[in-house]
């Protein structure tokens, strides 16, 4: 489904990511973990089409999408929740979601994967606060809107950058429970996380990023070994 090969990308002329290879198969949940400054956000922004690759390829379902601009990547089934969420703060929750739903409907010929009602069933808040301006919601509530909006663009792969950082534990629990439901429905997930505990809990396998390179792969069933490997965790993941 997603196949990244030899990816080099960065800010301006300065590469931040070097020779990154990674894959996500249909239905898989994969994590990218790494310390502050490892290049996680640069990777997400490159996959989202906000940073243009300097070298390498990004193939989604057989199509090279490295050159496809960010606002068209949802047409390739890629949904993204960015660190800063990028919602329309002055618009209501409903309007933020309806705009996404309209775009998603236009892009997707067949039956919708997620409808407005579906996402409201996932997060009760979306119905309760439908008329509130998004800018008035808490960070955690905004994150729920951001996830719902991404889903309404009808992705089969959802890429999320530090979804739960800085949120209250109760909200983190609610969001992770929804992610588990989405996984069970077959959505593929690329979860970028600083918290190894959350990554281990939520995904099948992982890539460890350090200074812009994949320095280690955690394969299926190997999460516990990584958590036990204190040297690696200490050196590359900040304990
Ligand atoms: N706008 C920018 N211009 C130039 N360099 C940047 C910019 N944003 C980040 N960098 C640099 O790119 C590198 C990777 O940063 P990135 O934000 O991708 O890391 P990260 O793994 O997401 O870190 P964090 O866990 O803090 O979110 C860092 O060395 C950082 O200083
Ligand atoms: Mg980041």
Automatic annotation (TrEMBL):
It is an enzyme of class 3 (hydrolase). It comes from the Bacteria. GO terms for biological process: L-amino acid transport. Residues 2-236 form the ABC transporter domain. The keyword Amino-acid biosynthesis does not apply. Keywords: Amino-acid transport, ATP-binding, Cell inner membrane, Cell membrane, Hydrolase, Membrane, Nucleotide-binding, Transport. Its EC number is 3.6.3.22. Gene3D superfamilies: P-loop containing nucleotide triphosphate hydrolases. The keyword Membrane applies. Belongs to the ABC transporter superfamily. This is ABC transporter ATP-binding protein. It comes from Cupriavidus necator (strain ATCC 17699 / DSM 428 / KCTC 22496 / NCIMB 10442 / H16 / Stanier 337). The lineage of its organism: Bacteria, Pseudomonadati, Pseudomonadota, Betaproteobacteria, Burkholderiales.
């Amino acid at each position: 489904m997603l196949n990244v090969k030899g990816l080099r990308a960065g800010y301006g002329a300065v590469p931040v990511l070097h020779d990154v290879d990674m894959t996500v198969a249909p239905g898989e949940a994969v994590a990218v973990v790494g310390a502050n400054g490892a290049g996680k956000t640069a990777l997400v922004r490159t996959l989202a089409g906000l940073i243009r690759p300097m070298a390498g390829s990004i193939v989604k379902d057989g199509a090279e999408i490295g050159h496809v601009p960010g606002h068209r990547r949802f047409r390739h089934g890629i949904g993204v929740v960015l660190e800063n969420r990028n919602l329309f703060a002055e618009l209501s929750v409903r309007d933020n979601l309806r705009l996404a739903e309209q775009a998603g409907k236009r892009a997707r010929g067949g039956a919708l994967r997620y409808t407005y009602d579906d996402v409201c069933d996932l997060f009760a808040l979306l119905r309760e606060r439908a008329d509130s301006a998004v800018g008035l919601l808490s960070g955690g509530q905004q994150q729920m809107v951001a996830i719902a909006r991404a889903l309404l663009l009808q992705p089969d792969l959802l890429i999320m950058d530090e979804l739960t950082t800085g949120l209250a534990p109760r909200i983190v629990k609610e969001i992770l429970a929804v992610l588990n439901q989405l996984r069970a429905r077959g959505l593929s997930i690329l979860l970028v996380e600083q918290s190894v505990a959350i990554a281990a809990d939520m995904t099948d396998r992982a890539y460890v990023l350090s200074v812009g390179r994949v320095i280690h792969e955690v394969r299926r069933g190997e999460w516990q070994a990584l958590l036990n490997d204190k040297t690696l965790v200490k050196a590359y993941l900040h304990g």
